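Researcher: Next entry in the queue.
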Amino acid sequence: MAPTDLQDAKEQVRQAIDIVDLTGSYMQLRRQGRGYVALCPWHDDSRPSLQVNPDRQSFKCWVCDIGGDIFSFIMRMEGLEFREALEMLAERAGVELSHKPQGGDGQFDRRSLLRVMAWAEQLFHRSLLQSPQAEPARRYLIDRGITDESIKNFQLGFAPQSWDWLLQQAQQSQIAPEVLERVGLVRRRDSGGFYDYFRGRVIFSIRDVRSRAIGFGGRFLPGVSAENDAKYLNSPETPLFSKSNQLYALDLAREGIAREKNIVVMEGYTDVIMAHQHGVNHAVAVLGTALGERHVPLVRRFTDSITLVLDGDEAGQKRTMQILDDLLALFVAQEIDLQILTLPQGTDPCDVIASQGSDAFRQLLSNSLDALEHKIQAVTNGLASAPGTHRSAQAVEEILGTLARAFAAQGSASSASLVREQQVMSRLSRQFGISEEILRSRLVARRREQTSRTRSPAYSSTDEARPPRAERLALSAWEKELIELLLHQPEVLPTLVASLPVDHIENEFCRQIYQQAINMMESGQEVSFERLMLATDDSEEKNLLVECDEQGLDKQNSNTEQRVSDLLTHLAQQQEAAHHQLRLADLKQRRLDPEHEQEVLSELFEDFKRRQTGSSPTDG
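Model: Structure for this entry, 620 residues:
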């Protein structure tokens, strides 16, 4: 969809759906003045904190600082990306989105591919339930303790041991082999033609958060699958599926995650199914890859707390140590709480839950370790009574290296991370008999090493050059005032443009909004809250706009001309102060020749006299 088509579609959907109707379909609204209130679904709310503004078509909870429009509401409630939210709302509103097919053929567009995956999911599921060939698969599921209800809920299936079973079914349904190839269901033979990708396997349907099949996992069946086949086989990368940013059963775990305020990440399909059968329904699984950076945006739609469950075998322990430093750096940077549970030797979640029940498994979850604590225990095992040894010194250096990497990835330390750092320093000091001052000195040195590495050309990228997200969305009072004026008094924009160049605004988000407003004005469009809201698809940016809009409402009766004047005066004062700092630096560093030095001294003296008399730097 072209940019103009996308903006038109967003505007049509915005006009077609009333935010009161939309929010009211999820929660009970109560009229309060000109708006509505409801219990906020994103925090433990006993008094209605969520405010819905029908005039501005926005919502805001000031307690948990979440707000936006119809799109960000659906993104939050359903855990969707913007495009998915747009599609869902368009369907609700009866607005037809224009889909431009790839390669000029509509059978390859996303909607058509999803239909083919839904067809295949039903075909595999029906095969498991009805086909005589699926008897070994049914026995395997019974032996694993998987119930008929779970088979239905998780849409489990079976692929017969045949090179062309799916191809024949597709031919009857008039689905081209090339379409099956596009979604990873068949592969092309070197000699020509195609063959089924999944053969002789139990099939696990991998679905997105809207419960749409986007991929499959196939489990080896003894006596059915070929002897040299891999134990598990996942769909290849397709336009619908990428194993590195999807999680198995996330669609079924959403309610449990919201209730528990935590997501449990396991390693196997049957582990997750068994967990859900026993009421641990905030469990999901990775898809043949480690939990990593590309999972973070998906997880953060639902929670900031993760418990990673690893099998209690030697391989599980080895995987823990291999990924631990990467996970620590990643999740400290994202300010996500990461706990790690390594199960007792020789067990996996399915074994523990089936043999000991959900209460025992929940007890294990409650005893999981903070990821950093897990690292400390791993490297200090057996060293508590031996401070000062070479091994203990190596352990300290390894822990400090992990800390340095984690906090370097964060960019700027939050109050929570500073508290955590203090706790770690105190513990290391006690355990190893090293003063906190020495530990901090080493940590600073290790941080400096990490920072220099991440700034080297080998690590540079466009994304890393951008300020951290929290910094981009942290507005000063001056920047908020500018956005409030744009939202409520857009008629002052020509005056602002004449005196305020875009590049004089430091904050990236504020600069972006100001530039968008200018673009709208220059193209003859009305500058409005609604249009500026549609200009961004980011839910946090929408939230910030709603905050500025609501706060700007309280200033509508104030003197607009005076507000603009104060805004520009403050900018001039900031620029003057920055100019003074530069000139003083020139003097201190003796970078000026005697003649210029005298000019600068005279200039600074005149500025000082003007400030003493209270005159403005813009006065004549």
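Model: DSSP finds 28 helices and 16 strands in the chain.
Researcher: Noted, moving on.
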